[in-house]
Design a protein that fits this description.
The chain contains 7 helices and 14 strands. By secondary structure, it is an alpha+beta fold. It folds into 2 domains: 134 residues, Fructose-1,6-Bisphosphatase, subunit A, domain 1 (Fructose-1,6-Bisphosphatase, Chain A, domain 1, 2-Layer Sandwich); 110 residues, D-Maltodextrin-Binding Protein, domain 2, CATH 3.40.190. Helix 4 links the parallel strand 10 and strand 11. Helix 1 runs antiparallel to helix 2, helix 4 packs across helix 7 and helix 5 runs parallel beside helix 6. The longest helix has 20 residues. It is globular. Bound molecules: D-MYO-inositol-1-phosphate and calcium ion (2 copies). The site of one calcium ion has 4 residues, from strand 4. D-MYO-inositol-1-phosphate binds next to strand 4.
Amino acid sequence: MDSFGSFMMEIARQAGDWLKGRLDEEHTIDYKGIINIVTEADRQSEEMIVSAILGRYPGHDILAEEKDRSPQGSPYRWIIDPLDGTTNYAHGYPVFCVSIALEENGVIRNGVVYNPMLGEMFYACRSEGAFLNGRSIRVSGTRDLSHSLLATGFPYDIRENPDNNMDYFNVMARNAQAIRRAGSAALDMAYVAAGRFDGFWELRLMPWDTAAGWLLLVEAGGKVTNLSGAPFALDAPHILASNGRIHESMIAALRLASPPG
Ligand code: IPD
Ligand code: CA
Ligand code: CA
């Protein structure tokens, strides 16, 4: 493993364990939208991670969820979700993670998703594979959508925007074995990489939700596209990720959904 990899695991563990220790405390909640919240823990976790990165790599660029920072023009950019699963966290529901990815010249080279509640460190390095607590992981072998366990989520503008995943959910729920909505997109993607879920889709995620999970999935033998099967890009609005084997069936099922109106 390269030094970036061990460093990102160290800072994800530090922030994640700190979040775990505060889970049952009372949180200060601010609203970014009607149901989109941020707590003091999101902000402090981000501060902890960013100051560790800039302490070690002062010229690197940072894209993190809670605070805008101007790019320095570095070939390296760290993409950080300091707490993925904020709504869960604010309710004391113990499903959340820290997600950190490192891009070099626009290509993600390392990614980590850390779930402090289970002590699970998902890590990927480009061309070197994906790992859970040091052991290699692969996507599932499920070939049939009707035997597949899927994950999804709903965008924060679910009340205002008719393109809110309800139609897709409706169709998928009748085509898959079951669907889970656990509330952390980065963990959902890590779980597809580890073969726990067979597929995942979601609308309007942000780069910090998907960057590390994307690399985990690619390195674990999975497939990541947009909802029609075209290549995924970090700034693309929608994502479809799977073990590869059920990808076409997922696309076909999504096509059955009536267009939003
Ligand atoms: C959210 C979670 C959730 C997903 C939302 C994300 P946050 O991230 O990943 O599962 O459905 O779309 O925005 O706000 O908890 O960092
Ligand atoms: Ca997130
Ligand atoms: Ca977050």
